[in-house]
Design brief:
Elements (H helix, E strand, L loop, with lengths): L1 H14 L1 H14 L3 H14 L4 H13 L3 H12 L5 H17 L3 H14 L3 H13 L3 H14 L4 H13 L3 H12 L6 H13 L3 H12 L11 H12 L6
Helix pairs in contact: 2-3, 4-5, 4-6, 5-6, 6-7, 6-8, 7-8, 8-9, 8-10, 9-10, 10-11, 10-12, 11-12, 12-13, 13-14
C-alpha cells in the first residue's frame, strides 16, 4: 500500500510539475522577487504540465511587469491551444490589455465587449469601463459603469471608474460621493487618489487635492497603471504653484 501511494505521489509530481513550479513562481511574485518568479515560470514552461490558468497568469504578470512582447507571444501561443469556450473568453479578456497598451484601443474595446456579453466578470467590467472613458465616449462610459456598479458595487476599480466618469461629465457632487466611498476602502492604486485630486482641484479645494496627489504618487504602479508618475508629479507641481497655495 505504501509503495502504491509513493508511486502515485511520484506520478502526480511528474504530471503536475509545471503547476508546482508555477506555484513557486506566484509565491515569489507575491514577495516581490522579480527575477526569481520569472525564472520559475520559465522552468515551468520547459518542464510542461502547466494548466491553462497558470499559463494565463504567467502572461498577465509579464504584461503587468512591462514585458509586452513576451506576454503577447504567450497569449498568442495560448490562443492556439484547444480551449473551452469559457477559457477562450477568459484569455481574450486578458489579451485585450496588450492591444490597449499598444494603442489599439478600438480593438481592445471590441474584444472586451465580446467577453462581457458572454462571460461577464468584475475584471472585464473594470477594464472596459476605463477604456470607454479613455476613448472619450462619456455617455457610453456612464451607462456602462453604472451597469458595472450594479454588477459589483464593492469593487474598488468599478467604483473608481464610475467616480471618474461623473467627474469627466461635470457631475461633481455624484463624483465626490463615489470617491468618498472609494477612499473608505483604502485603495492601493494611484488612479483613485489622482482622480479625486482632480475633482478637488476643480471644485476649489486645492489643499486637499495636493494631499490626494501625494497619496497617488505613493501608491503602487505597474505597466498597467492608467496614469504614470510623471503626469501626477506635473499635476501636483501645478497645483502647488497656484496663487491660492502660495
Amino acid at each position: 500500500m505504501v509503495k502504491i501511494l509513493l508511486i502515485l505521489v511520484v506520478v502526480l509530481l511528474i504530471w503536475k510539475r509545471g503547476d508546482l513550479c508555477s506555484a513557486i513562481a506566484k509565491l515569489l511574485y507575491a514577495r516581490g522577487k522579480t527575477v526569481s518568479w520569472k525564472k520559475w515560470y520559465d522552468i515551468a514552461a520547459k518542464l510542461g504540465g502547466m494548466s491553462f490558468n497558470n499559463k494565463l497568469t504567467n502572461a498577465y504578470l509579464l504584461l503587468k511587469d512591462g514585458d509586452i512582447d513576451k506576454a503577447n507571444k504567450l497569449f498568442a501561443l495560448l490562443s492556439m491551444e484547444r480551449l473551452t469556450a469559457p477559457q477562450k473568453f477568459q484569455l481574450k479578456g486578458a489579451y485585450a490589455l496588450v492591444f490597449w497598451k499598444r494603442g489599439e484601443v478600438d480593438a481592445a474595446i471590441e474584444m472586451l465587449e465580446e467577453v462581457v456579453q458572454n462571460t461577464p466578470t468584475t475584471s472585464v467590467y473594470g477594464s472596459l469601463g476605463y477604456m470607454y472613458i479613455y476613448n472619450g465616449n462619456l455617455s457610453k462610459a456612464l451607462e456602462f459603469n453604472l451597469e458595472a456598479y450594479e454588477y459589483n458595487d464593492t469593487n474598488a476599480i468599478i467604483i473608481d471608474n464610475l467616480a471618474y466618469t461623473y467627474y469627466k461629465c461635470g457631475e461633481f457632487e455624484k463624483s465626490k460621493e463615489f470617491y468618498e466611498k472609494l477612499l473608505e476602502m483604502n485603495p492601493t492604486f494611484p488612479e483613485a487618489y489622482y482622480g479625486y485630486a482632480c475633482l478637488l482641484a476643480e471644485t476649489g479645494n486645492a489643499e486637499k487635492g495636493i494631499e490626494m496627489a501625494q497619496k497617488a504618487l505613493n501608491s503602487e504602479f505597474s505597466f498597467l497603471t492608467m496614469i504614470n508618475k510623471q503626469e501626477i508629479s506635473e499635476f501636483l507641481a501645478d497645483l502647488q504653484n497656484t496663487p491660492s497655495n502660495e
